[in-house]
Amino acid sequence: MKAWRPLLLLAVAALVLLPLAATVLGGFKTLGELRTQPLALPDSWQWQNHAGILASARFWRQLGNSALITGLTVLLTLAVSALAAFAFVRLRFALARQLLGYLLLGLLFPAATAVLPLFIRIRDLGLLDSPWGVVLPQVAFGLAAAVLMLRNAFAALPHELFEAAVLDACSPWRCFTRLVLPLSRPILATVAVITAVNSWNAYLLPLVVLNRESLYPWPLGLMAYQGEFSTDWQLVLAFVTLTLLPLVVLFLLAQRYIVAGLTAGAVKG
Q1: Does 128 reside within a domain?
Q2: Relative to the CA of 139, which of 30, 32, 93, 188 has its CA 20 to 30 Å away?
Q3: Over the Cα atoms of the chain, what is R_g?
Q4: What is the pLDDT of residues 124-139, one digit of tens each?
Q5: 6 occurs within a structural domain
């Protein structure tokens, strides 16, 4: 069985990397070449596809909108979920288990199932055509998974550390900021990366909430290359490649934390 394990991993890697390679290479082709040779290397590399996008003010505006929405979503999700997870692990209060179960019910309902009531609520709050109309629902729907991961990681911390902090007259807030957060950087980085990926690639919620093109994030920017009768697929692929680069850089910077973060609390929880 062990002899087949490298082959299995190579097959899985090929399934993941083949679409990525086709996307990157497709951005350097002409539309005709993309249709006839989608997986081959370009006969002539069309660098102007990327150069034209990079020279567009629309691209940088949409990238900035995506960065703003993603940054706010990550910060709010980390702040609220970390506080909630710490409360569930270290504080004793009535109906804690029931409240946690109610919160984790959010794992069963994706945002797509609540588009209509979300739109009505966002409209009533006056948040249409506002980044907050996208950020707040994303935070709400991301809290369940974030609290679950952080709670398991916080529960796996040695109990003796908290006992020593109590003996030193450390308040719950100081225990949270001085003890829990510094020891939980791997899981915090993991939650941040997962939240950032989900927010960066979100399409449906911004489509419903945002009506002005000046507020569009990058997934809605793809519509600029889609006409009524034709689509410039080579520009779409070049656009996707350029907009995925920030996430690739973020993953490379945080990868040493991700494995440790995902395994934190795997045994004790």
Answers
A1: yes
A2: 93
A3: 22
A4: 999 999 999 999 999 9
A5: no
Place of tokens 């449906």: 204
Residue bearing the bigger pLDDT, 120 or 255:
120
* Cα separation, 266 vs 253, whole angstroms: 23
Domain membership flag for residue 230? yes
Spatial CA neighbour of 141 closest among 115, 160, 162, 167: 115
User: Which secondary-structure segment (H or E) carries 15?
Assistant: helix 5-26
Q: 175-234, pLDDT tens digit by residue?
A: 888 888 888 888 898 899 999 999 999 999 999 999 888 899 999 988 877 766 678 888
Domain containing residue 237: CATH number: 1.10.3720.10
Residue 199 and residue 74 in contact, taking contact as beta carbons nearer than 8 Å: yes
Q: Residue 162 to residues 90, 152, 179, 184: CA-CA distances in angstroms?
A: 9, 16, 8, 14
Q: Is residue 8 part of a domain?
A: no
Q: Is 265 left (phi over 0), alpha (psi -120 to 50) or beta?
A: left
Length of the chain measured in residues: 269
Answer positive or negative: Cα dihedral of 188, 98, 174, 265: negative
How many domains would you assign to the chain?
1
Quick one: three-class SS letters along 185-198? Answer: HHHHHHHHHHHHHH
Instruction: Specify the pTM.
Output: 0.85
The residue whose two tokens read 């399409």 is 203
